[in-house]
Amino acid sequence: MKPSAPLDMQPIYSAESIRQIERKHLSQAVPGLMERAGAGAAAEALRILEGRRGRVLIAAGPGNNGGDGLVLARHLRQTGFDVTVAFAGVRSRLPPDAGNAHAAWQAVGGSVATTIPQQTYSLIVDALFGVGLERPIEGSPAQWIDVMNRMDGIKLALDVPSGLHADSGRVLGIAFRASHTTTFIALKPGLLTLDGPDYCGMLSVHDLGLDVLGTLPPEGRVIGSAAYLREVSRRPRNSHKGQNGNAVVLGGAPGMVGATLLAGRAALKCGAGRVYVGMIDDKAMAVDPEQPELMLRSPLDLLATDTADALAIGPGLGQSDAAQALLGQCLALPVPVVLDADALNLIAAHARLANMVTARNAPTLLTPHPAEAARLLRRTTEAVQGDRVASARQLARQYKSSVALKGCGSIVAFADGSWWINTTGNPGMASAGMGDVLTGLVVGLLAQKWAPEAALLGCVHLHGLAGDRLVAQGCGPNGLTATELIGSAREVLNRALAESS
Asked: What's the CATH number for 11-222?
């Protein structure tokens, strides 16, 4: 049993599905699943300690997660570590496997404390609560987590950091803030989205030696390069710009021209043969001095022809009557359309436009942030964030569209019910214009005849990779700009092209 390699393309299961997998293997697994989990956690602990010794604290809870911690304690003690177990439960009330783990810990000379001894620890292990937690942590367990969070030392969570909802990534009152999380059987959505990445630290997956995919098909997957690289191909030497597609970006209301230009520049830099930018503001510049290759036109002139191979509308659009009319015209076109920003707000506000979206035969792609998603779903932003996977799937189903719900751990969902979570990106990308760049990348790849699903998955992933690349080079996270991201996205895309050849 080995921890998984990188998270790319790994399957994701809800807590209930994990329990189904456990039940199917519980009576057949030798050694048992708890013994395997504790052994896997011990291997991970040894790896992250890198040969260092010192005292280890394991906080074990009243259920099976606590049992995993007790098995870990036994393995580490037998390896020569000084292990302290703080047990937050009653032995007689433990589930059978956890009770056996408690007895086995005592059989090797281990003892348990009923409070957390205030000492110095090299490793602090959270084994309080697992994937079944549904209500906020209160009382002494909350106090224990607070104490552990304030301790120095490496912090390892088993399966899920206690207090983090396994399906949504919500913090239930208080949560253990791990530097490392080793999760069992498969990834859970809450580890990857909303608050999950802030509380999980570095993730590793131990499948416990089970045939997970053969037991139950995955509900979701992590976005990896295999999800989109099939669309990347080298251009023939004998090619011209017309073969690389015409992308059209519409917006440019007074005071918001910059958003539209960012999207247009991104479409150009990711390889579209021609990029046309339609500005509602008739006093807007006739040329982009930073990117004179962009062809600036009036929106009506662009829509009067069949110029577009793919079209994006929303960045800098505004919500005027003119913007509403323009959006209606775009939705009637038989080309792939990317809807962002004010295009989404207009659809949320006008049933006629929403009906036009659902009636479209050509591909439609929505890229909302949580507040825009909330308007489209007639819910609060808090409700959308409370279950990001369900919200993205509902949007895709309701609007018969492909959806990227932006945020920490962006969710990509499709009308057929499939969904993915992105793990690239960083806090520096929480700045103005980043969404406009994403829109431009998507329409640019659609114009080059990428399949809509691959374009959306690829752009969300590459968009984050571009930001990560800049941070690695010292450009951010603080002060990272959308303009800088465009050039980085071009380099990341071309590197992917070179690697796939």
From this structure: 3.40.50.10260
Q: Does residue 159 contact residue 200 with C-beta atoms inside 8 Å?
A: no
pLDDT of the residue at 501: 67
DSSP 8-class letter at 16: H
Protein fold of 242-500: UDP-N-acetylmuramoyl-L-alanine:D-glutamate ligase (3.40.1190)
Distances (CA, A) of 250 to 258, 432, 438: 12, 18, 15
Give helix 96-107 / helix 33-49 axis angle, nearest 10°.
Answer: 50
What are the DSSP calls for 250-288, one per residue?
A: EE--TT-HHHHHHHHHHHHHTT-SEEEEEES-TTS-SS-
Instruction: Give the start-to-end residue ranges of the domains of the chain.
Output: 11-222, 242-500
Q: List, in sequence order, every beta strand (DSSP E) within 332-440.
A: 337-339, 364-366, 402-405, 411-413, 419-421
Q: Which two tokens stand for residue 128?
A: 């309080």
pTM value surpassing 0.90: yes
CA-atom Rg of the chain in angstroms: 26
Q: Are 11-222 and 242-500 equal in CATH topology?
A: no
Query: Cα(229)–Cα(58) distance, rounded to whole angstroms?
Result: 43
Which residues of the chain are under the pLDDT cut of 50?
Answer: 1-2
